[in-house]
Amino acid sequence: MSDTPSRDDLPGDAATPSTDAPAAAPTPGPPRRPARWPRHAIGGLLAASYLAVLLGTALDVGFARDEGFYFTAADRYQQWFDILLKDRKEAMRKEVVQRHWDMNSEHPPLMKVLFGFSHRLFHDKLGWLSPSTAYRLPGMLCGALLIYLVFLFAWKRFGELEAFLSAVFLALMPVFFYHAHLDAFDVPITLMTFLTLYAFEKSRSSNGWALLTGVFFGLALLTKLNAFFIPPTLLIVWVLRDVVRPTAATILAAAFLALGLAFQLDVWVVALFFVVLLAAVVLASDRSGGRLGLPRIPTAFFWMALLGPLMLWLGWPWLWHDTLEHFRGYFNFHAKHDYYNIAYFGMNYFKPPFPVSYPFGTTALSTPVITLGAALLGMALFLRWRFRAMHADLAQRAAALAEAAPGWRTAVRRALLRPWVGVRAAGPPADELGRAQERSPGIGIFLAVNLLVPMLIIAHPKVFIFGGTKHWMPAWPFLALFAGIGAAWALRRVVERIPERLATLRVGTRRWSLRAAAAGALALLLVVPAAQGTAQSHPFGLSHYNLLAGGVPGSADLGMCRQFWGFTTGALLPWLNANVPRNGAVYFHDTAWDSYRMFQTDGTLRKDIRWGHSAEHSVVALVHHELHMAETEHNIWMAYGISAPTTVLTHHGVSIISVYVRPGTKLGYEGPLTPPPRAR
Amino acid sequence: MRWLRHWPVAAGALLPLLAVVELVGNAWTASLVPDWPAFEAAAKVVAAEHEPGDLVIVHPEWLGEGRVAMGPWIPLEDETRADVLDYPRIWVLTLEGRSHPDTAGLPVEREWEFDGLTLTRFRNTRHAPALWRAYEHVVDASVAVRTPDGEKSCRWNEREGKHECGPAIGEHWVWVGPFVTTDMAQQAHYCLWSHPTVRGPLVTTFEGVPAGETISVYTAMTYVAARDMDKPPVRIDVEVDGRLVGSADQPDGTPWQRWSFAVPPGPPTRTVRFLVSASFQGMRHFCFDAAMRGAP
Asked: Where do the domains of chain B lie, and which CATH numbers do they carry?
């Protein structure tokens, strides 16, 4: 592990130049740490505001298929806790454990347990929230907490402006906003992953944080399967930051290896690049006395290996009995999962090979363009820093060769470094990015690896794609961080152009920084289109696409996935309530039974509206438009003998749900039957 | 190249500019499709000028409000049509600047604009009405499986509206009857379900078919059956008065196909026979339709 103190140990504001003053400087006392409360207060305010918006808009978002299953599972787990409180011995019996925890055992229980407790507290006991919102609250809290953590992370490493922009860019990703409403695991696992990575980053200088890394990893394992990818990701981060020195040779060799893999070159060529990379790594390492210097291994790895599996076992009663068999079942459910249908540029993919570009293409078309543009700028700035650092390093090596002892090695080195002989490299830029790199060496690598690994996993042609963009959600905070860094850097360059004489505005005795005001105003301007896109997307988050796609109509022309999970039924409830005849059966298509029941429990769907198993058994039939669902619609046509819907739910003019009514059905609800007067 | 030194400011200024472009662009894309009154206005025009036999198309398929507004003039048979040859006039409701491929090159009779919607009426110069359609006469057809042990007749089930071959050969999925197929392009077409069997060709015979110059044959396999691209094609042979006039293969991965075969000269009414066969019978969700066209 590096001995460089982390940013947390350094005084001074993150956005100001490094204050690594010599220890012997005659200062009156130890340097004062900047006050912590502003960042916690502002971050907390952002998170609280986000939570308030999520709560205020929750009932607009219909229930996704999986949510229905989690509502039911949450209740079943609560029943076990009831038994536990009454009779601990009985609750621990194998039959009782398995009867209650076998439901939805393909997913770990942490969030479902929290959904259940939240429902009990905020609906059953306090009555503050509707049933569904009470279940969903823990997921919303995870979303808000993630905003807070991203804000803190960016503030401490980069600066206030970066923190604000990163947190807001994340909050205003339309797809994130949608998922943050749900009682599902995607936002929670993104939070747990970020928490683990954050703790790992801090553990570079703290054993306490190393222990916490293990705890958070355990919580991540208890949240969702994605957690298994955290250790390999951290291993890559560690190798790239602390094992491999980013010399020109290692970077070039790694680049060639990546290109060889990307273009699927001959295995021997790829193997040669790998050998060259290994040689470059060894050459760049601390070698002495014919021994290879191994870097220190982060303590966090130890705690993760110890606490992760332990917490998973302790926190998941399903694993208490027949542990290996049940774990195998959990693992195999995902390893041998059915392939689902997913539309991408007019093609319906349902089996491998899936397009490698999928995670990148869909991210590019569903994230606000301003966020993408700022993120690309942020990445480019880190690359620029890296290349300039390399350039300076090579120039320095070339200069050192002037005094090297003659010999063939020196001759070879001189030949290789010839372009850098006599070069006066300026070195990496000394802007806020450079200072961040000084405070947290390799922070760019940390961000880049955590952005790319989740996306590259899905990019593999054999990996299942069945959830649109959500399966690489752990990458999104890092995309937002790059965006925040890029945008803040850009705004600072612009406001620096305000002449010094205009930089401060005097009003009476007070002075106002025009530069700060301009930066703030421009920052608000940058987040406005993201806010607009998010507002426009609600409550159809999964159906929303950005300007690059031509908006929602453009994405429909491109043949992109319009929705999945049948969640859009929520927006159709007012029509159903007003039009379905009394006791009429509705074919709800992709909406799950448990979700339908929750609409009725919430009181947002009339209780007399019945569940129809098919169009044939219903008077009203819905079609959630997805490319591979066309056959369902055509079956309804055959069943009803018509081909035109009675009404349609649209998003920006694009069909989301078509509603077919069986010919001869009299639409309209006339209110509850008046009970006949009782005979006296 | 001194100006290059100012690239950080330029890059910095680009982001606010991009924000403004996106802001305007988001508002623009959200208003690309007009509101319901425009569709209502278009429907009023069609209501006033629609004639029996006209075809009404809403394009693109995702323009749901258009399908609702035009619903009264889009019967199932039109929406699941084989092609546009049967229609003398074609109405297309679409967004401004768009066109439907089926109307390429057709002369425009009249065009209306409604706040970004375009309603166009075309004269179909390719109009070639069918003298006879297979799916309209399926009740009158006789169906059998030509096995090595002889022909096994399939019984007409009045209630189900199909010729069932299950009782004869023990394969309940082998029948001939009306069906709406969803082809590889996810498009719906009205046709006759005709799942082949390895026991022998499935033979559908129509007697007394009015003679024409050509017989158009349409073939398709359902999307779920054809998408795996790993099974052998289904073959259809077309006989007129016992003489083979054409054959067609429907391989996996291909959408709705149209074939045109010349009808040899002969009497004014003909016997047309379709023989459907495949070397493999798993998931061969094949269907066909046919139309006799042109005066004899």
From this structure: 36-123 (no CATH), 130-293 (2.60.120)
